[in-house]
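Retry 2 of 3 after timeout on previous attempt. Resubmitting structure tokens to design endpoint.
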């Protein structure tokens, strides 16, 4: 058989072959097993995801709730505090984690041991960690003020007596707790960069600074933006740091939106206003989520 005839025979065979098509309907035991597997997941999704979201949107649908919020001084303060807490705190934490990941990427034993120690705050439960911060900063007999008095003979400030100091304490405690997690993420991203790229840059005469600017930064930019957006979403919805460290002191001036919504719903028995306070962050969260999804879908650079 010539090559032309062999090619024609194979083409005819491929033309007659059709891939197997799944039967569009299930019957009998197959249908029963399919329903048995789908129903529990559908019930959990409806009961614990769809229904709470729909009920919350229904509770906060009245425009009068948002007019009342804008007239409330505590809401305006909480919105500003949340913007500062999520904006400055997130960027400081991401930038610090990015720089620390470069330090821990060095191949030395003592640095790897130090990385294990650095991960301890992340491993601690949030409740005792934040409560410990609260007691260390509480009054003149707190650990930090006592240390300042013993070492330098000065009286420390009233950490929870000022709005901005209280908000700063909340941010520092949150960064201390979650910084190791993001350091580990960026550390893994740095390890995924091929060493051949750094070697090629060194051959071309690039110094350590230029290798960082022209190799590390372009390859990790997408990861950095994704982590920043994800961290901002978490920070906006975080309640524990602001509540357990400063507790909104003084006079609820340092509380954030998540804490204010809980205060409305449970302390003053206004659940509708509490839901509205939480939903007021959606105009910020929705664009961040869209940007996060678009960044994840990008495939220009893959490590």
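Retry 2 succeeded. Sequence:
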């Amino acid at each position: 058989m010539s090559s032309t005839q062999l090619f024609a025979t194979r083409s005819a065979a491929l033309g007659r072959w059709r891939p197997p098509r799944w039967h569009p309907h299930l019957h009998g035991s197959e249908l029963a097993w399919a329903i048995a597997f789908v129903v529990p997941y559908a019930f959990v999704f409806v009961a614990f995801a769809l229904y709470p979201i729909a009920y919350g949107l229904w509770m906060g649908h009245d425009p009068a709730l948002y007019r009342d919020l804008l007239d409330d001084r505590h809401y305006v303060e909480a919105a500003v505090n949340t913007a500062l807490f999520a904006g400055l705190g997130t960027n400081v934490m991401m930038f610090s984690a990015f720089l620390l990941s470069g330090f821990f990427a060095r191949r030395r034993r003592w640095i790897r041991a130090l990385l294990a120690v650095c991960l301890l705050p992340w491993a601690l439960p949030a409740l005792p960690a934040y409560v410990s911060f609260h007691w260390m900063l509480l009054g003149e007999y707190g650990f930090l003020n006592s240390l300042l008095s013993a070492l330098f003979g000065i009286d420390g400030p009233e950490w929870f007596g000022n709005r901005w100091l209280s908000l700063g304490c909340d941010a520092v405690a949150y960064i201390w707790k979650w910084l190791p997690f993001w350091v580990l993420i960026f550390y893994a991203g740095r390890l995924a960069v091929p060493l051949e790229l750094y070697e090629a840059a060194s051959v071309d005469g690039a110094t350590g600074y230029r290798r960082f600017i022209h190799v590390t930064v372009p390859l990790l930019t997408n990861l950095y933006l994704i982590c920043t957006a994800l961290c901002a979403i978490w920070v906006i919805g975080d309640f524990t740091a602001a509540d357990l460290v400063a507790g909104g002191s003084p006079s609820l001036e340092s509380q954030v939106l998540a804490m204010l919504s809980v205060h409305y719903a449970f302390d003053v028995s206004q659940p509708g206003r509490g839901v509205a306070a939480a939903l007021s962050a959606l105009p910020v969260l929705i664009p961040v989520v869209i940007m996060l999804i678009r960044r994840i879908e990008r495939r220009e650079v893959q490590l």
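Attempt log closed. The two ends are 49 Å apart (CA to CA).
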